[in-house]
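TASK: fixed-backbone design
INPUT:
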């Protein structure tokens, strides 16, 4: 056994140079027979396969494949992919005014902002993105595909989309620097409607200011259709604006146990609330919905939400690559795990992504008319 271990330690340093730093940092691995078996398998594949690959490529594929089979949100980006992903998030880069989101069927859906290049070109809520340039998006992550769409302002990016009727269009969009407002007020309905497109650093401040400008006691609608999440902590703090100190917002189960998040202050708004939701209300937006509905603070209207009830953490590796590892499962204030199941509305409305506002308003009027 000792000779076997010494042999494979030498093998790690000779045949798999990309792993040298990791082995040096984790000497206990050299004494783990299961890990030695893994490296033995890679070496034998390299020796026997008619398609031999460099050790680095084999290791990257093994990491990526393992993470992706764990769940649909764990992933791996090589150092090169992560550099592209990071560059696309730089303030000097520009987009096309569109969020994208991966659904349960492996498709990437388009969620354009009104008035942006994508919307003006005819892309609509729920259209399926199939290509960016000549790159097929299927089997690639939303993080990576998003980095392909973004680039320098003024440059053109070509996207291919399919709408709900099956029509396929290839469109050239000019990247623009856009300050998309992720929160807006619509005062044209029977009561004020606050649309939250995603949760970010400014959400709580803007929401608090908007609520203060509305008449006290008047019912409000908070529209979360197509809100695929954003910042977890922004959603927790936004929900707390409507809750009393000590009321639960969400629990997160990790390897270290259960962490509870509760409201810290007093509510800034006590008016009746109706939440609009659909099948693309996801992640942080589901945290917001569950917190208000389970605490009896709001009613919800629409379809069952998407069901992303897990969180991820980014783990950097020594060669510059990164892993996105699912590290927490979320639970509603009533103690329900909703991952993949979603959150059923208190008032069911038969809708699909893109159902007109008028359908929601008609149902909202009926709810408001009831004592």
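OUTPUT:
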């Amino acid at each position: 056994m000792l000779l076997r271990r010494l042999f494979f330690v030498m093998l790690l340093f000779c045949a798999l140079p990309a792993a040298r730093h990791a082995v040096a940092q984790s000497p206990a691995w050299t004494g783990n027979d299961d890990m030695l078996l893994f490296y033995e398998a890679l070496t034998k594949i390299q020796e026997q396969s008619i398609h031999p690959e460099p050790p680095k490529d084999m290791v990257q594929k093994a990491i990526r494949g393992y993470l992706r089979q764990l769940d649909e949100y764990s992933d791996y980006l090589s150092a090169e992919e992560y550099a592209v992903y990071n560059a696309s998030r730089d303030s000097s880069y520009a987009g096309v005014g569109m969020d994208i989101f991966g659904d349960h069927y492996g498709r990437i859906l388009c969620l354009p902002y009104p008035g942006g290049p994508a919307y003006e070109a005819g892309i609509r809520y729920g259209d399926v993105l199939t290509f960016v340039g000549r790159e097929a998006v299927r089997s690639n992550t939303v993080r990576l595909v998003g980095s392909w769409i973004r680039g320098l302002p003024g440059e053109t990016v070509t996207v291919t989309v399919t709408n709900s009727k099956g029509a396929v269009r290839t469109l050239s969009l000019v990247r623009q620097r856009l300050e998309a407002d992720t929160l807006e007020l619509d005062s044209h309905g029977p009561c004020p409607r606050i649309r939250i497109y995603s949760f970010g650093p400014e959400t709580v401040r803007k929401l608090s200011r908007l609520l203060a400008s509305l008449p006290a006691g008047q019912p409000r609608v908070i529209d979360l259709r197509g809100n695929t999440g954003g910042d977890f902590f922004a959603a927790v703090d936004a929900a707390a604006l409507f809750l009393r100190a000590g009321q639960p917002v969400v629990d997160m189960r990790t390897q270290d146990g259960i962490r509870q998040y509760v409201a810290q202050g007093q509510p800034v708004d006590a008016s009746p609330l109706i939440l609009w939701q659909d099948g693309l209300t996801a992640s942080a937006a589901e945290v917001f919905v569950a917190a208000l509905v389970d605490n009896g603070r709001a009613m919800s209207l629409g379809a069952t939400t998407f069901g992303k009830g897990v969180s991820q953490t980014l783990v950097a590796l020594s060669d510059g690559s990164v892993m996105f590892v699912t590290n927490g499962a979320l639970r509603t204030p009533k103690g329900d795990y909703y991952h993949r199941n979603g959150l059923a509305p208190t008032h069911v409305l038969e809708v699909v992504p893109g159902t007109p506002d008028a359908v929601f308003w008609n149902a909202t009027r009926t709810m408001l008319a009831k004592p």
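COMMENT: The first strand starts at residue 75 and ends at 77.
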